């Protein structure tokens, strides 16, 4: 299988990688770049634990190929804080205790970020299509 | 789950994509948003040598209103369509079906072309390779028997696109381009009615545009599912009203949506037509709820969709 | 954690008592000082005690475990101890359900849960546990269930196995009823499990009352509920 060169801007840093065509963005982030905030869970785009932000939109990275992302701007939960200051969403997740084991929390934050910042509207209940188990949903 | 090996090519034009299709002798899959294709690949339900990415074809990423038609490129995402004011104003049934599709994150990724050409689904089919090997291959996987209805000769897997129903009720047409040239047809004609190969498209054909006649309509989309987000429809009904006529489309049961044209919207007519959906719905136990229930609900949602659309009219 | 701290304190007290020449029972710790209660002039800095312990190659380090006195046999008559906490914990769940008579779909507009958790050490976490219990027992009673075909699990994924979503959840009133348990750590019993034990019963009772009939199987998917609605009508006729 031939490899493909892709250039990504991840958390504001340009990275050029040689990837196999069948590598998902999630695999690239976790296994090549050690950005393990996005989690591998269902692998089918159902649960949302792998959500990262691509070109300003939340994306389920387990069903997206890295080769599709050439030139894209990608933000992961690791890039949310500014210097040592946490993102307000991270702060409020902490204040409200919106975690249980925390496995899927990064996916929730990256999904919530879209509703909270990008469109400046509060999340509507019917948009919360992410499947998150075992956590106090109402803390959101 | 790990993807199988394949090569990746990005097409810049439709001609490019078809050139690549010919170059690899048809052993390819076209990729748009990937929300349907990636799980199929991961499950080894499709093992192409090459995946051809269509997202680079910019011609297919536009929405234009011209000559009495709204023309939508197949690459437009469901999320972008939801933001379109014309769709909100003219085609409420379409707006509602877009809203009912999966969840918002997936709407941002999924394209309308990919949503229409999604594979049919069955609780015994959309499973991992290991699961299917243990269970035995069914008709849709090239096996000899159906795992849901023993002895069945045809596959009755469910076509689960929400938006196809809305577009059919809006009398939309589609344009496809393939190695054999270009053609246009009513959207309901893309269905073969066979679950094992649900689309009546020639090999290599690409759905490029959807065209909806620009007439203001009243409409409603009703979808039955266990959870209020994410889930595919267990049965769904799209109703589009124009003056005293209605075009109603029932889907989520069986491999092709079913269309009902009503002239006159008296209560008796609507109830009569809704009753005929019971016999028409070929439901088998290939989802999480019982087939008898889904058959019955087709009629209930039928009446609800029409009534909701009628109410809107007042 | 409480037990570990107590164990660490004991080590500090032992060294200080020896150094200050007073009995261990006379030692108190305050403001980074260790002193004799009887004669507060006898005192030393806590950091000295720690350094002394280090010099003796026995640094102040302690572990602690706590296991509640519970009845794993679940007999409870001759052994009146709870199963999760030494003292029985109590909870009440109140579910309000709405059933669509045509489709059998259940919605839960409002759910009230009250829980005697002993002392709520972290009230926010207790509420979180209660809400989680409403999701995983209450709403799950409507959606979650395994489907089998012979030995084959038909819904081994998050798409067909229906975990309730945020949008399916009711408004929840979580009421913490504190009682200070004499044997639990800081007076705590347990948080959330008691709600988990009865949230599904509340949903079941509400559905049973609404449909006027009894049933014997979970989950309460709309196809089954519609049957209940229709059976209920027949029974009242």
Global outline of chain B: globular
Largest interface: A-B, 32 and 29 residues
Largest β sheet strand count, sense and barrel closure of chain B: 5 strands, antiparallel
> Are there runs of chain C of 5+ residues with pLDDT below 50, and where?
none
> What number is the mean pLDDT of chain C?
92
Helical coverage of chain C, percent range: 25-40%
Instruction: Specify the number of helices of chain B.
Output: 11
Distance separating the two termini of chain C: 62 Å
Strand order of the largest sheet of chain B: 4-5-8-6-7
- The whole-angstrom Rg of chain B is 19 Å
At the fourth CATH level, what is the homologous superfamily of the largest domain in chain C?
Aldehyde oxidase/xanthine dehydrogenase, molybdopterin binding domain
Radius of gyration of chain C: 27 Å
Question: Quick one: biggest sheet of chain C?
Answer: 3 strands, antiparallel
Distance between the termini of chain B: 51 Å
Trace the largest sheet of chain C across and list its strands.
1-2-3
Q: How many domains is the backbone of chain C divided into? A: 2
Separate helix tally of chain C: 5
Please trace the helix and strand order of chain C, writing H or E for each element: HEEEHEEHEEEHH
**CATH structural class of the largest domain in chain B:** Alpha Beta
Tally of separate domains of chain B: 2
The CATH architecture of the largest domain in chain B: 2-Layer Sandwich
Key words describing this protein structure:
heterotrimer, A: 140 residues, alpha+beta, Ubiquitin-like (UB roll), five-stranded mixed sheet, globular, B: 314 residues, Uridine Diphospho-n-acetylenolpyruvylglucosamine Reductase, domain 2, Uridine Diphospho-n-acetylenolpyruvylglucosamine Reductase, domain 3, 2 domains, five-stranded antiparallel sheet, four-stranded antiparallel sheet, 11 helices, 32% helix, 22% strand
Would you write up a description of this structure?
The complex is a heterotrimer of chains A (140), B (314) and C (237). Chain A has 140 residues and is α+β, with helices and mostly antiparallel strands. Chain A has helices at 25-32, 88-95, 105-118; strands spanning 4-10, 13-19, 51-54, 57-60, 73-75. Chain A has one domain (4-132): Ubiquitin-like (UB roll) (Roll), CATH 3.10.20.30. Helix content of chain A is 21%, strand content 18%. Chain A has a five-stranded mixed β-sheet with strand order 2-1-5-3-4, covered by helices on one side. Chain A is globular. The model of chain A is unreliable at 118-140 (pLDDT under 50). With 314 residues, chain B is of the alpha+beta class. Chain B has eleven helices and twelve strands. In chain B, helix 5 packs antiparallel against helix 9 and helix 10 (267-280) runs antiparallel to helix 11 (291-313). The mean pLDDT of chain B is 95. Chain C is of the alpha+beta class. Chain C has two domains: 2-55, no CATH class; 90-236, Aldehyde Oxidoreductase, domain 4 (2-Layer Sandwich), CATH 3.30.365.10. In chain C, 35% of the residues lie in helices and 19% in strands. Chain C has helices at residues 2-20, 46-55, 123-143, 193-211, 222-236; strands at residues 27-30, 33-36, 43-45, 90-99, 106-118, 148-149, 152-153, 171-178. In chain C, the strands form three sheets. A three-stranded antiparallel β-sheet of chain C has the order 1-2-3. In chain C, strands 4-5-8 form a three-stranded mixed β-sheet. Chain C has a two-stranded antiparallel ribbon with strand order 6-7. The mean pLDDT of chain C is 92. Chains in contact: A-B, A-C, B-C. The interface between A and B is medium-sized, with 32 and 29 residues.
């Amino acid at each position: 299988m031939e490899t493909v060169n892709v250039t990504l801007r991840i958390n504001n840093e340009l990275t050029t990688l040689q990837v196999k065509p069948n590598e998902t963005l999630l695999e690239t982030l976790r296994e090549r770049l050690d950005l393990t905030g996005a989690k591998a869970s269902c692998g089918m785009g159902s649960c949302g634990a792998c959500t990262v932000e691509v070109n300003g939109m939340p994306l389920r990275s387990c069903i997206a190929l890295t080769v599709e992302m050439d030139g894209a701007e990608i933000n992961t939960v690791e890039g949310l804080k500014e210097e040592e200051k946490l993102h307000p969403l991270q702060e409020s997740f902490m204040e409200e205790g919106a975690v249980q084991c925390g496995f899927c929390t990064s996916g929730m934050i990256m999904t919530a970020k879209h509703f909270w910042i990008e469109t400046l509207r509060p999340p509507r209940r019917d948009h919360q299509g992410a499947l998150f188990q075992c956590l106090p949903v109402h803390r959101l | 789950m790990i993807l199988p090996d394949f090569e990746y090519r990005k097409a810049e034009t439709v001609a490019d994509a078809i050139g690549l299709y010919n170059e690899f002798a048809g052993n390819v899959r076209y990729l748009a948003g990937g929300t349907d294709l990636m799980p199929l690949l991961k499950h080894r339900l499709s093992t192409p040598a090459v995946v051809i990415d269509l997202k680079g074809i910019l011609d297919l990423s536009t929405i234009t209103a011209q000559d009495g038609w709204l023309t939508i490129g197949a690459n437009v995402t469901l999320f972008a369509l939801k933001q379109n004011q014309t769709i909100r104003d003219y085609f409420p049934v379409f707006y509602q079906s877009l809203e009912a599709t999966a969840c918002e994150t997936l709407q941002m990724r999924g394209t309308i072309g990919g949503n229409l050409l999604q594979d049919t689904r069955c609780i015994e089919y959309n499973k991992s390779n290991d699961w299917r090997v243990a269970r035995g291959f069914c008709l849709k996987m090239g096996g000899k028997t159906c795992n849901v209805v023993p002895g069945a000769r045809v596959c009755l897997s469910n076509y689960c696109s929400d938006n196809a129903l809305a577009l059919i009720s809006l009398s939309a047409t589609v344009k496809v381009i393939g190695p054999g040239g270009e053609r246009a047809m009513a959207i309901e004609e893309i269905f073969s009615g066979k679950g094992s190969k649900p689309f009546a498209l020639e090999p290599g054909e690409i759905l490029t545009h959807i065209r909806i006649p620009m007439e203001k309509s009243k409409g409603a989309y009703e979808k039955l599912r266990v959870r209020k987000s994410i889930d595919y429809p267990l049965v769904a009904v799209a109703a589009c009203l124009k003056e005293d006529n209605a075009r109603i489309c029932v889907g989520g049961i069986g491999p092709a949506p079913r269309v009902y044209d009503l002239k006159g919207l008296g209560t008796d007519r609507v109830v009569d037509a809704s009753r005929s959906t019971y016999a028409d719905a070929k439901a088998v136990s290939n989802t999480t709820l019982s087939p008898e229930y889904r058959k019955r609900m087709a009629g209930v949602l039928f009446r609800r969709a029409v009534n909701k659309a009628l109410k809107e009219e007042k | 954690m409480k037990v570990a701290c107590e164990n660490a304190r004991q080590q500090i007290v032992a060294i200080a008592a020896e150094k200050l020449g007073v009995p261990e029972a006379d030692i108190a710790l305050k403001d980074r000082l260790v002193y004799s209660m009887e004669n507060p002039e006898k005192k030393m800095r806590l950091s000295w005690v720690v350094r002394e312990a280090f010099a003796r190659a026995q640094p102040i380090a302690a572990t602690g475990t706590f296991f509640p006195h519970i009845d794993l046999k679940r007999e409870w008559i001759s052994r009146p101890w709870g199963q999760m906490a030494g003292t029985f914990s109590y909870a009440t769940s109140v579910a309000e359900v709405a059933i669509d008579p045509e489709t059998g779909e259940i919605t839960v507009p409002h759910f009230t849960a009250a829980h005697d958790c002993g002392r709520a050490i972290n009230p926010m976490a207790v509420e979180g546990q209660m809400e989680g219990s409403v999701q995983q027992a209450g709403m799950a009673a409507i959606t979650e269930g395994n489907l089998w075909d012979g030995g084959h699990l038909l819904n081994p994924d998050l798409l067909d196995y229906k975990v309730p979503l945020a949008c399916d959840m009711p408004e929840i009133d979580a009421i913490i009823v504190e009682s200070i348990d004499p044997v639990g750590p800081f007076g705590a019993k347990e948080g959330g499990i008691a709600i988990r034990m009865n949230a599904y019963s509340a949903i079941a009772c509400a559905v049973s009352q609404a449909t006027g009939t009894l049933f014997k199987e979970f989950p309460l998917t709309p196809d089954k509920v519609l049957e209940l609605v229709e059976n209920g009508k027949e029974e009242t006729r």
